[in-house]
Hints:
- It is a single chain.
- With 455 residues, the chain is an alpha/beta fold.
- It folds into two domains: 5-48 and 380-448, Golgi alpha-mannosidase II (Immunoglobulin-like, Sandwich); 53-373, Glycosidases (TIM Barrel, Alpha-Beta Barrel).
- The chain is built from nine helices and 26 strands.
- A hairpin with a 5-residue loop joins strand 22 (396-403) and strand 23.
- It is globular and about 75 Å long.
- The termini are close together.
Amino acid sequence: MHHPLTTAGLALYTCIYSSEDKVGSLSPCPDASSSSTWSLAVDTTKPLQSIDGFGAAWTDATTYLFDSLDDELVDGLMLDLFTSSGIQLEFMRTTIGQSDLTPDGRWSFDENGGEPDPELAGWSLTEPGQRMLRYVKRMCAISPDVTLLGSIWSPPGWMKENNTLISKYIQAYVNYIVSYLNEYKSSGVEVTAITLQNEPLHSAPVSGEAWTMFMNASYAALLTNATYAAMAANKLGTEIWAYDHNTDKPAYPQHVLDSTEVSTVAWHCYASASGGFEALQDFARANFGVKQYMTECWLHDQSGEGFFDLPQFIMRLVQFGASGALAWTLAGSVDLDVSYPGGCRECTGIVQVDMKAGTFEKNHDWYTLGQFSKFVRKGARYVNVEGDHIYEDNTGVESAGFINPDGSVILIVMNKFSNTLEVTVNVDGVDVVQVLAARSLTTLVMGREGKVMKN
């Protein structure tokens, strides 16, 4: 850790950047001179929402891909993912049962050959479920305080008709969910929260994909209340988060909050053009004390996704009130061959695995995600930053500020210009000047001289 700048007691302890022409590293920033061409002001006097972390999603595809690697490689990768020597992810999602990133066939914890099993006599984690649990346990052994969200894509097929839950199987489905939570708890894994249906408005009631189910807001409220009652009876402290879908339908989570004890909403990023991330700010104003997370935004590294896409969706969500953000997904295949039929074949991960070669590579999303997750600690508070501006040609500067529990101030800045930019950062009335590389993401870690800073 170096101290390139000190001004009136304010020290720039760490300056890390990655850029389009230097993807694959987190490098110390260039030293600044005495002048600047842009100004940013960090307001630490009015801290806003707390931050629980940033991360990605465990899927069947991820565990399948990791299993194709030598265990020694996976051990090193897990340390790189979940410790301070790497990118230290602290907020993770896991699929409960099958999703659209399931490469090895339809499954659930009680598929039962398609025949009804309302007593759940055939309930079992099954092989893919056991594989998922093994990796989640490895993660929790390394990072026991990780915030873990479990999301359900579909109940067993026999519980559905016209792609909706059959009413006579409501209690069976509740017991199915509780059995999953008890199995994880008995294995030493506490699931922080669950969502009862991933993207409940994704498909119409008549569609029949194995990995979706339609669930309207009234049904979601009913199932939420029944599940909370069963979890209480089983002494399970897992939370339920509402919705798990796009920001353009806020009436859905509003109904769930109004009808249940839920106080947290999970959003996806896919309606940013129609409804926008501003929906989080509006929702918070209408629901005092609500917590909000962005629980899915896809990565399409091999389909032309830009360098700034991941940091931009994280920044814009925390600017409007999110307490954490997740990328979809943790690992993808270089051959794009690990999705379920009809699922997201083009989805990639922050890690791309070559199963034939038994190797993996960390793509630019790994490094840009790490510039948030490595430096913004759980329990940090978001703070406003003045001076951002994005022009019509999509150049400009955008940033997000945080205060860590140790008092350090984190500023993450996108320079979307094709030239270097010298910026003055004002914190508590004290200026620090720093060079931002062209087309780059820069993380500044600032604190008072004499205070021991920890990454």
